[in-house]
Amino acid sequence: MEQLKINEDRLLNRINELGEVGRNDKGQLIRLALSDEDKLGRDLLISWFDELGLKVEVDRFGNVFATWEEEHNKGRKPLMLGSHIDSVIDAGKYDGSYGVLSGLETVQTLKENNVKTNRPVTIAAFTNEEGVRFPPSMLGSLVYSGDLDIDKALDTVGIDGLRLGDELERIGYAGQNEPGFIEPEAYIELHIEQGPVLDTEELEIGAVHNLQGNSRREIIFTGEANHAGSTPNYLRKDPMQAVTYFMSTLYNYINKNGLDTVATLGSIQLEPNAATIIPSKATFTLDMRSPTEKGFHEAQELVRNTLKEIEEEGKIGVQATEFAIFEPVTFDKTIVENIVAAAGDLKLSSKLMTSGAGHDAQMINRIAPSAMIFVPSKDGVSHNPLEYTSPEQLVNGANVLLLTSMRLLNTNK
Length: 413
Known about the structure:
This protein is an alpha+beta fold.
């Protein structure tokens, strides 16, 4: 019997069509969460859901769901497939959207081939995964999992000074359902890797079995501005010396103890930012990630202890704001095994992988067994207009999603 496969042209055409929604006059794709461009993307997505006759529902946080169910499986917990459609600034067209549209293609393929499933299938498009306009990221799935109070999340103020809840109302996507109203039996998210592993190793599919924990902080060290030439070291209150000590302490400890942890100082601002003046203030970001609980927790303790040490020395003021602390995630072993088996059925090479980036799946994993499928990103590039995954690779991933879904939908629990 010939293996069921998705409609390649339909999937690729939808990816390209959605990829044009939100482009400015410079050709940049900017579809920030709850912007006018995001509304247009949502409207297009829902038009495709409606064409297929799916049941479309929206929760109070703007998370969009489309469910295919039939009389024989009505009332059962659905298999959920999804991701997000909001983008970063000057984005590529695959990040997030690929997972949602492949979920749609999976449902359409099953439906038009009269495949009888033992439970419904729901396609999910979560709000504000990128967190560019309304930090932090993955707010929609975090609210949906019940780990963030919705009213608090609705009060989030964006980088443009506008309130998230007001923007939801403005674009017409403040639904009536409470987050969590659809309880999935399982969740699968198909995504481009956003890293170089599959491309470098010339592999076709990543079966993502865990996801790194991630902490993000803004740290402010305050000292005293003074003359760069006439102030001796022992009288300086130099916040940049503290930054140097802080980061070197983290790097040295991580390397010496072999922690599976990475630390990144990604942004720094100095005041007054002049070549001949000792700065009075250093404001910087710290991003730390680890795939294991041991490495993650040891790294968090190291950060807090080092900050305390600097503060107790008495020369430098210390202020640290924790924007996000997300624990490492281990995905469902059965789903991962089915992903590997589906790739094997299609004669596609695969490997078990760790996700270095955060995704909605890590939040939904708190309420339902979850896992992810990766396809290669050329040169590991993402969040960039040069983001590229070949049509063949996109189709491969969607077919693995289809076969994995069929395996899960035809198991009796």
